[in-house]
Write a structure and sequence with these properties.
With 257 residues, the chain is α/β, with parallel strands linked by helices. Helix content is 34%, strand content 24%.
Length: 257
């Protein structure tokens, strides 16, 4: 099972990790306010109950994650910082849980089943929604937790200036917003020189409304092939492949009697 914990909704589905296809309809519950660990864990329990699911699940979090510990909370309740997310969710749901950064999850899905498949060189995924999430790959290998939406651009935090939430809040036209977003992408281009930039998140579905205004960016830009399902699919991939890694690890030798 893959779950995508977003700023406005928590979505889940069962995934065939060999093909990247959803084997059920996606189910969405609005993100609770405030999005505290207890409230989010209860919402995720409701998702597992909806699917009558008791196996391993992957959860894509809008945060930097180290060994399951939440390090940042830009668009979720600050009480998550320092918390052991897998332990909290496992206690509530009874499901073995693997946590991954949400943009990293979307990137894994796109690199496996989307436009990034077989890409050589640097590939970058930018998810556009409540904030700006990023994932960076070199020859298909992920560098986790880049969180490049939090960098400063012209004395402003980039995602506070160029996210889809900001576009809606300030009632910007697609053209005006794309001018901001294009400057951000151009800055990323100057830092990493990617071969391809993939736009994910909710704004991927509206790519045709602003594509023509991103003329400053020289890198090839494509909307996510998997659109807003990428986070769910990537979370499920991470859960499955972590499971395999654990199975392949040799058992520690037992001390002699």
């Amino acid at each position: 099972m893959g779950i995508d914990f977003g700023g406005s909704g928590i979505k889940g589905a069962l995934i065939d990790t060999e093909t990247g296809e959803l084997t059920t309809e996606r189910y969405r519950i609005p993100t609770p306010e405030p999005s505290t660990p207890e409230a989010v864990a209860e919402t995720i329990r409701q998702l597992t109950e909806h699917f009558n699911y008791k196996g391993r699940m992957g959860v894509a979090f809008p945060a930097a994650v180290q060994a399951g510990i939440i390090q940042t909370a830009a668009n979720i309740d600050k009480s998550w910082i320092g918390k052991d997310a897998p332990a909290i969710l496992e206690e509530k749901t009874g499901c073995d849980t693997i946590i991954i950064n949400d943009a990293d999850a979307a990137g894994l899905a796109e690199m496996r089943f989307g436009h990034g498949r077989d890409l050589k060189g640097v590939g970058m995924i930018v998810t556009v929604g409540s904030g700006l999430g990023t994932a960076l790959f070199t020859n298909g290998v992920l560098m986790p937790n880049t969180e490049l939406g939090h960098i400063y651009y012209k004395d402003k935090i980039a995602e506070k200036w160029a996210s889809d939430a900001t576009r809606k809040k300030k009632d910007l036209s697609w053209k005006k917003w794309a001018k901001r977003f294009g400057k951000y992408l151009h800055y990323m281009e100057q830092l990493f020189y990617p071969e391809l930039i993939i736009i994910g998140g909710g704004a991927s579905k509206k790519f045709n409304k602003y594509e023509k205004y991103l003329h400053k960016v020289r890198t090839r830009i494509l909307p996510a092939y998997l659109q807003n399902h990428a986070g769910i699919i990537g979370a499920a991939i991470e859960a499955k492949e972590t499971e395999h890694k654990q199975e392949e690890e040799p058992q520690k030798a037992q001390p002699a009697e």
